[in-house]
Amino acid sequence: MLLLHWKQEDWSGREFAITKAEQLLGKIKFDGWASYDAHYTSGTATIAFKTKGIFDYNIDINYNGENVGVAKTSILGKTTIELKTGEMYTLKSEAFTYNRKMLNEAGTEVISYQQPALTFRKGDIMVTEELTELSREVLVSTSLYLKAVSEHQAAILIIIFIPLFMRNIVG
After folding, report:
1. What is the H or E stretch that residue 93 is in?
2. Do residues 68 and 81 make contact, with C-beta atoms less than 8 angstroms apart?
3. pLDDT tens across 119-144, in order?
4. Does the structural domain 2-170 have CATH classification 2.40.160?
């Protein structure tokens, strides 16, 4: 397994860095505060994530200007990544943690995100060495992007529904 690290670069949760042994591999930056569009840049690539929809949507994944796949996600948590090569991956969350894992079609874990319980700003990424370099870069950046988006969506739902819930309880 290849060990990588991710770290939130700003207070807003809209910029992330991916490193390996203190060496910067790439950065993800969202296009704006309310946008789910983002770009990952590394020494060899620019990967653009373009969203379609608000809560249930497809995300086009473009590698150096060429469409290489699509991520499909829903507010109910089902998330898949389908690459133009025909590869299909599923992103799964662990209950009551921020940990996530990506499984290939055979159900084998290819990427694992581990995040300390009381830390929202950093974590580790374990990647199987069986992935090609291109697949690894696309899947690591896409899964970190999706992790950030799902946490942002969860925060929005909490902001919307907690006041409504409290209003109904209090009276």
Report:
1. strand 88-93
2. no
3. 778 999 999 999 988 889 999 999 88
4. yes
In this predicted structure, which of 13-22, 61-70, 110-119 has the lowest mean pLDDT?
110-119
Task: Quote helix, strand, coil % in the chain, to nearest 5.
Answer: 20, 45, 35
Question: Which residue has 């569009």 as its token pair?
Answer: 37
Alpha-carbon distance of 63 to 31, in angstroms, equals 17
Residue 31 backbone dihedrals phi, psi, to 5 degrees: -70, -20
Tell me the pairing of strands 122-127 and 15-20.
unpaired
Q: Measure the CA–CA gap between 169 and 55, rounded to whole angstroms.
A: 27
Angle at 16 between CA 14 and CA 17, to 5 degrees: 160
The amino acid occupying position 43 is G
Q: What is the pLDDT of residues 22-71, one digit of tens each?
A: 899 999 999 977 788 999 999 999 999 998 766 557 899 999 999 999 99
As given in the structure block, the two tokens for residue 59 are: 């995300």
Q: CA-CA distance, 47 to 18, in Å (whole number)?
A: 14
The one-character DSSP state at 22 is: T
Token pair in block for residue 136: 């690894």
Distance CA 57, CA 59 (A): 7
Domain boundaries, given as residue ranges, for the chain: 2-170
